[in-house]
Here is the input.
Amino acid sequence: MDYIAAWRQKLEQSNNSGPASHDIHLYVENSYLKVPIPTGPDDAATFRVLQMWYCMMQFRMGLGEILLPKRLTRIDRVRICKVELRPVGLGSKIESLVLGRSKSSHVAFFEDPEKVKGQVTVTQKLLANTENEGLEFVRSWNIVAVSAIVLLPFVLSLIFSGIWIGVSVKKDTDVQVAVQSAFTVASYIVTAGTLLVALIAFIDSQAIKDT
Here is the structure.
């Protein structure tokens, strides 16, 4: 990937006294990247770069990330192994990184790197990773966002019905016909929205199985 090569070159140019970057394997469900991270100066800098790579991987995962959003719950150090048709595959979990707890997630420091400015605990641990180790971003459904998306077709159908009936009444259309037509179209909106959400959820579950 040209962007990864350019970033690696930028890190190397920033430090002439020794290696300025360290390659690490990253996994987000079925998305994989091997990327460079800085060798210093602290955990805050490391987390900011990891945030960038994580956002890039989300972007590569496409429409499902928008329609059915998930939230990061923890980051695990994992063993990796060679598998067919993939550069590397996920192996067993080594440990979960201690990144501070925030509500039901354990990534407080990752989401707010300034809290660990000057610390190097995680950076040193990642730099000690061998070629057979990597990081997995573990996520769960964002219940609030998913609930809002699931309810959206129903809300849109109600808005449409109200507008349709109002416009029809102003045009002297029979009220009963207007109501029947409005709720017929509204039912199609709800059905189409539900099928779309179900389809994306199915595709997402199949992608996870493939990993």
About this structure: The chain is about 50% helix and 25% strand. The mean pLDDT is 80.
